[in-house]
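pipeline stage [seq->struct] | target=HD domain-containing protein | organism=Thermofilum pendens | residues=337
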Amino acid sequence: MRLLREGVYWSSCPDSELLSSLARKGLSLVVDLTESECAYELPPGVERLRYPIPDYSFVAHEGVYLKVLKPLVKAISEGRIVLVHCRGGIGRSGAVSAMLLVLLDRMPLESAVRAVKAKSGGEWMPAQELAVRWFERVVSMLGVELLEGLLSFLGGQRVFSEVFEDMGALNHLSTVANVSLDILEALQQAYKFEERHYASAYVAGLLHDLGRFVSSSEHHVVGAQIAGRFKSQRVDLELVVKAVYHHRRRTDLLGDAELVAMGLRAQVVAAAVRAADAFKDAYWGTGCYKGITRRGDALVVELPAESSGCHVDEGRLSEKSRPLMGLTGLRVEVDYV
């Protein structure tokens, strides 16, 4: 068991003796991140919050924020003692602990990860590293308020509340939103994107497939209509709507006169969201994606060299990236690193 900060512990599977000892100190909440891998009895008055994450893997950081981090922050703000655990006390609980440091202390990514790994040892899986990196960027670049507003928008509409229960769907939405930001960051030096471009890309990525929950046909049209109802001064709503509409290959992204009138950077944002939609689930297995870098005249998608059987459909990636390549003059390549 390790102490993360005052009143916050994380560990491997706890036993009843450890829990009883902590209960005498005031333990009131245990967060269990395992898939029923640990057996123990809770002391009287101690609450258990379950959010199962596959071993050696991770899930969309947006869902973790909503279902795990927010309850933890609330408990901590009330002066309650909390314990977060997975099976080994290294990867899943370590990643959540680092996310807590980012959220509570606004700790930079490297500092948060270093602080946790110094106490736990061991190695994280690519999916765990990725989730913490993506979460820290959303918090530091876009702000918790935007994330809160976006999740409230989703949760406040009955038909979309199931998104948070469908881990595969949420993982895909998160993947598209965050890969879109990776693409823009890789192009930042050339295009000088502003915060509104990043915020618009992230929102469009997280909303892009919502039309599927309403209609299986023309879901990009329905999705664009849904996106138009989102309210935030942080985004360019017209750009969000266009990016959601054009995430499908069948639309004429480059020939959209209204999008052209918004400027080249807006076109690139929409093209980035479409390209990001080539990825199904970056969190799958131990992790199916590492990042995107620019190397000369190419945007290089970096994938884990040793992954648990996952890969990217390079044909689909090439097709979805055509508008992006046309606008930037860059090739899109894949490299296993």
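stage status: PASS
auto-comment: The first strand starts at residue 2 and ends at 5. The radius of gyration is 21 Å.
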